[in-house]
Design brief:
301 residues, Arc Repressor Mutant, subunit A, two-stranded antiparallel sheet
Length: 301
């Protein structure tokens, strides 16, 4: 349940495009334009301005957007409250997740969950671990799925899967001939690093401290926020990197990258399901929470 005109308007503002908003709402661009014009005619004000290839809200449009977002959030809350009282597994579920979890762990979970509970609409927001947890604490999402450390003791965590961090290099990198790397080998190499604020970046820096390597002494050739792109850059020979095992199994299988060893000890971390409450308040949230906790994940290799 929602006001389709309000939803259409918010999509145009957020995507800065009538065509992209129409595609997201699964309607034609002319239908989207008609919805916005209908709103403007009813209010008697101009809400949006087309500038070159982008669309921006007018001063009145910005005010209207803020109120529209609040109204849509109330629609969602009303629906979820009604379904909770009626014990119906139905409604909207907002989940924040890190890129690695979204790309490699969750597609199969969402597919199986949606088959069992087709009346639950899942909205996913993807960011680094730090941003996802901030969004959760602001109450903008129902739960989070992230990897790495969670320092806030007020959050409730459930371990759902294990991850292993591996060091990779291109198949022609001279380091692939070494049985074990030394700290000196790492310092001498250019690194392709994940973005600051991500769970894996924090993990890497903690690992450097264990090896008594000053992270400031590492040669960083690139900083990238996409695990897939990091693997591709390593394949191209632009540097070495630490990555999740989940993100590199295809490249390992086809032989374009090689695993490097620094010790016989595996670098392990966990994926967590995180909530502000011991369990989510809505029926849809509780159902997904329990479904994911019981889901069996298998390491790729």
């Amino acid at each position: 349940m929602e006001d389709h005109r309000l939803k259409a308007f918010c999509l145009v503002v957020e995507m800065k495009s009538f065509s992209k908003a129409a595609e997201a709402k699964l309607i034609t661009q002319s239908a989207m334009s008609h919805l916005i014009k209908n709103l403007e005619d009813e209010l008697g004000v101009k809400l949006l301005i087309r500038q070159s290839k982008t669309v921006i809200p007018t001063p009145v449009g910005r005010i209207f957007y803020e109120h529209a977002k609040q109204i849509l959030e109330q629609y969602t809350k009303m629906e979820n409250d009604i379904y909770t009282v009626g014990q119906k597994v139905k409604g909207t579920l907002c989940i924040g997740t890190s890129t690695t979890a979204a790309t490699y762990l969750l597609p199969q979970v969402f597919y199986n969950f949606s088959k069992n509970y087709p009346e639950v609409q899942i909205k996913i927001s993807i960011s680094n671990t730090e941003s996802v947890l901030n969004t959760l604490q602001e109450g903008k999402i129902d739960m989070a799925i992230i990897e790495g450390k969670v320092r806030n003791s007020n959050l409730f965590l459930n371990e759902i899967a294990e991850d292993e961090i591996v060091i990779i290099a291109s198949d022609d990198n001279p380091l692939t001939k070494n049985q074990h790397l030394t700290p000196g080998d790492l310092i001498a190499q250019p690194f392709i690093m994940p973005e600051t604020g991500s769970g894996i970046r924090e993990f890497i820096e903690d690992f450097f401290h264990v090896l008594r390597i000053d992270p400031k002494g590492i040669k960083i050739s690139m900083t990238i926020d996409s695990p897939e792109l990091i693997v591709q850059m390593v394949q191209s020979g632009l540097g070495i990197s630490f990555v999740s095992k989940w993100s590199v199994f295809k490249a390992i299988k086809n032989g374009s990258v090689k695993l490097l060893k620094i010790s016989n000890k595996k670098l392990k971390r966990k994926f967590y399901l995180v909530s502000l409450e011991k369990e989510p308040l809505t029926v849809a949230g509780k159902t997904f929470w329990n479904f994911t906790r019981e889901y069996r994940f298998f390491m790729p290799f």
